[in-house]
Amino acid sequence: KRVGKEGAFIQGMRVTDAETMDIVEMVLGGLINKEIVNLINRHGGQAVGLTGKDGMFIRAKRMLIQNKEKAGEWINIGQVGEIEYIDPSLIALLDTRDFIPVIAPIGVGEEGESYNINADLVAGHLAETLKAEKLILMTNTPGVLDKNGNLLTGLTAGRVDELFADGT
Description:
Carbamate kinase
């Protein structure tokens, strides 16, 4: 809104056009990322700011959503991406020197195009790729809720699959 651009949504999914993607990269990959890095560094950590475009470590492709009103039709929501692959080598390299990666959820496509990816999905895929023991998400929502709005805690991968299967 501060740059005079309203967010657009289709079927509850954010649409990211080219102009919005430029803003996303500037804000998430620049301003916010560097503020977080600075805070960590000022408090004794060694942080490095990244996006998935750095080292092409988050490979993505364009996300299409199924049209709920027309069976078999897919809707292009712009430069919103879904993760194809995360290369753990850059993060592993930083880890060998005790650096803390601060990662903006921006992926890169085959042609170098940028994709806006849901941050929780990036965190989850990265945790899975790195075989993390735990994933702790800090968010402005209460957490994962069941169909009745009750908070679910201590989810396993199997339980998450069950929740997806039953439409939660």
